[in-house]
Here is the input.
Amino acid sequence: MKVRRSVLYMPAANARALEKAKSIDADAFIFDLEDAVAPDSKELARTQAVAAASSGDYPNAEITIRCNGLDTPWGADDLAAAASSGASAVVIPKVGSTDELDAVSAALDANGAPAGMTIWAMIETPTAILDVRSIAAHPRVDCLVLGTNDIYRELRAPMVAGRHPLLPHLATTLLAGREADVSVLDGVYNDVRDPDGFAVEATQGFEMGFDGKTLIHPSQVEPTNTLWAPNDDEIAHAQAVIDAFTEAEADGRGVVTVDGRMIENLHVEMAKRTLSMAAATVAKVR
Here is the structure.
C-alpha cells in the first residue's frame, strides 16, 4: 500500500528547507520548481532539487519534483533533469489534457527516465475537472493532486470555511481517482497560524475519502499523519469484523453481526484495508 497521508511542498531554491526536510516525518515531499520559486532562481532550484532527490538522504519519504509546465521557458529542462534524478514522480501543474500528459511522458522517456517514474497530475482548472476521468486513466498517472487555490480563482469563488464552493469538484476528482485506482490528494490549507481550521479541513478531506493532504508547513505533518492512520480502536474493530465473518463462513451462517451491526463482504474489504493501512504506517516508522 502506498502511504501518502502527508505530502509536504518544499521550495527547492531554499537549501535550508531541503536540509530541514531530512528531519520531517512526511510521507512524501514535493520539491517545488514552480510557484514557490522566482524566475531568477529556477535554475538553482532545479539543481538543488535533483541533488536532493538523488542524495538518498530522505529514506523514509517518497520524493517527487514539481516541474514547470512545458509551455514555460523552464519546463523542458526541468523534465530532462528530473528524469534521471531518482525521484519517484514528477508533479505537473495545471494539467488540462491527456495530450499534455503524453508530451510529459515522452519527454521523460527521451531523457532516460525509468519506466517506474510516474506523473502526479495537478487538477487546478475547470478544464482539468471536466476531463479528470481521462487524466486519471492515463497510464503514467499515479496520483491526482488538487490545486484548490487555483480552483477557487478559476471559479471566482471566495475562500470560505467549509469549502462549499469546491465540494462538487473535489468529489468529482475523487470519483475519477477511484475509478482509475490512483491516489488522490487534497489541496493545501493556507493559514499556518490556524491549527484548528487546518484540523477541520483535514478531517473533511479524510472523511470524503482522500488518501492524504498536501501541506505547506512542517507543523501540519504530525496531525495529518495521525488523522489518516487507523487508531487502536479502529484496528481492533477491523480485526473483529474479519474474525467474525471468517467464523460465520466456517459455520455456514449467513448473518454476521459485530457490536450489533450486520456485517457484509463490503465491511470485510474495508476492514482489510484498515489493517493494511495500519501495517503500512507501522512499517514506515520502522
Observations:
- The radius of gyration is 20 Å.
- The chain has a mean pLDDT of 94.
